[in-house]
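During the practical work, I worked with a single protein chain and the C-alpha cells that describe its fold, as given directly below.
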Amino acid sequence: MLPLAATTFQQIVGASRMIAVERRGAVVGLCYVAPDGKGLDTVARWEFGGLHLSPALRGRGLGTLLSTVAIAAVTHTDTKPVMGYVHQANPDGMGLLVRRLGFLVTDRTVRLGPDDAPGYLRRDSAGCATAHVLRLPDAAKARLADSLEHFGSGPGDSSLSASPRLSESLFPSGPSEVARRLRT
C-alpha cells in the first residue's frame, strides 16, 4: 500500500510520524510525514504520503482531518517544505493538500526514477514519478491551528458524522500549544 521499504515503514512508526485513524479497534486510515531521506538533492523537506482511507469512510472529511493532524505534528516545530506524491489510483491528485489544506505548489519538483521510489506512485511513460515541493503559507498554518484547537472540543463535526479524538500521546503539550506554535 505504501511506497516504502518495510524497514523505512517501521522507522516512521517508531518515530511517531505515522498517523492512523482507528475505528472500533481497527485501523481504517493512515498517512505518514517523515524527513525526506532519498538524497536526491540538498534541500531539506518533509515527505508526505501513504494517505489511505477505507473506501467506506471516504467523502466524510476524514482524509483531510488525518492529513491536517499529520502535517501539524511535524511542521509546528520544523517548517521546512513538504514534498507530496500522487498515488496512481488517486483521481484528485494534489487536491487535498493544495485546495483543502492551503499548500502552495512551488516551481520545484523532484523527479524520481523507476527505482528511486518503488510502489504505487503515479508515473509517466518513462516510469518516473514527479514529487511536487509545496509551501505552507501563514494563512494555511492558521487554518491548521484552528482545526487543532477545535478538534474534539465539541460534539463532533457534523460533516464527519463522528466525534474524532486525538491520541493523548500525539501532542503531549496539547493541541492548543501546537496551534500556538503553528501561528508563530
